[in-house]
Design goal:
Structural class: alpha/beta
Number of strands: 10
Shape: globular
CATH superfamily of the largest domain: Periplasmic binding protein-like II
Radius of gyration: 22 Å
CATH architecture of the largest domain: 3-Layer(aba) Sandwich
Length: about 350
């Protein structure tokens, strides 16, 4: 009996991490997207590795940031996955901490654009995506973002609402094509307003576009690359445009909650998520485009994702400060000119 007790005490002394890990809980706040796959590929393996419990909270960005703000004095979330702009908003509100990237063994593997997306050391990118135009290649030819407004095409176009993640980036590129490149996006919004009765719909959910394309109600729509896979399953010819103005897109990032009592564990989880193994598994399932430049994908996966260093460098992203400082103005102009 005494031998067994001493053996147990010795084991605990040799493994203090194992003894305390089972008592630790890490709470993360993430998008609701593909959570069954995330559980299988990310959450369960991490729990097995750390011996801890992972609590996952999901919701849209507005809801999740509001909860972080409401619990600012006593944080209930340790790590969050948000957009670049939302990360800057959280930073301005004092909700997140600077990330000690020296503790991330996989940090050096990231594309440069993902290492410090907002230039303030408060976030690390884990996935990015291109935004371009999906179009019926047998019905039209897209060489410029301005082609969407051509008389022969415009009545077969769907355009993202300004309130969606794809809205502002698509407007930004349309503005470049029209020679109206200002942060207020007034030029492209006005141009859309002039054609609002011709455009089929100002969509809010990209999931509705596949059916509209199948039914030939639309021939073209700006979309994020993460939505592309659904279009490839259609029995009509669909192409991904490479307009002369280029492609835009977005990046999602990981942030650490200020005042979290589990930041060391949160850093372990962040490093795990950024690893080549996990990023590869998520990419092969077409869940996230990898921010880790060491990821090597099958041809099928690469063709459906935003993949490769040259692609990452080429994306024309709206700076987060511009997005935050102009959001209210964009919506006001949109409501005045487009009215939806």
């Amino acid at each position: 009996m005494r031998k067994a007790l001493f053996a147990s005490m010795a084991l605990a002394a040799l493994s203090p991490f194992a003894a305390s890990a089972a008592e630790r809980t890490l709470t993360i706040s993430v998008y609701a997207f593909a959570q069954d796959d995330f559980k299988t590929l990310v959450y369960d393996p991490f729990e097995a590795q750390c011996g801890c419990k992972l609590v996952v909270e999901t919701g849209n960005s507005v809801e999740r940031l509001a909860k972080m703000e409401a619990n600012k004095a006593n944080p209930v979330v340790d790590l969050a996955a948000v957009s670049m702009a939302d990360a800057l908003a959280a930073s301005r509100a004092g909700l997140i901490d600077k990330i000690d990237t020296a503790k991330l063994t996989n940090f050096s593997k990231l594309y440069n654009a993902a290492k410090d997306p907002n230039g303030d050391g408060m976030s690390v990118g884990y996935t990015f995506y291109a935004t371009s135009i999906a179009y019926r290649s047998d019905k039209m030819k897209i060489e410029s973002w301005a082609d969407l407004l051509k008389p022969e095409y415009v009545d077969h176009v769907a355009f993202p609402n300004v309130t969606t993640n794809q809205g502002p980036p698509a407007l930004y590129m349309l503005g470049l094509a029209l020679g109206k490149d200002t942060p207020d996006l007034q030029g492209p919004i006005e141009a859309l307003g002039e054609k609002k009765d011709d455009i089929v719909t100002f969509y809010e959910k990209s999931s509705q576009l596949v059916q509209l394309m199948q039914q030939e109600e639309i021939w073209a729509a700006p979309i994020g690359r993460f939505s592309w896979a659904g279009f490839t399953k259609l029995d009509v010819p669909i192409a991904w445009a490479t307009p002369k103005e280029g492609q835009t897109g977005g990046m999602n990032v990981l942030v650490l909650t200020k005042g979290s009592k589990n930041q060391d564990l949160a850093m372990q989880f962040m490093d795990f998520w950024l690893s080549t193994e996990i990023q590869t598994k998520l990419a092969e399932k077409l869940i996230d485009s990898p921010a880790n430049r060491e990821v090597k994908l099958s041809e099928a996966a690469a063709g459906n994702l935003t993949y490769g260093e040259e692609t990452a460098k080429s994306l024309k992203l709206i700076p987060s400060a511009i997005a935050l400082d102009n959001r209210a103005g964009w919506l006001k102009t949109w409501n005045e000119k487009v009215g939806q």
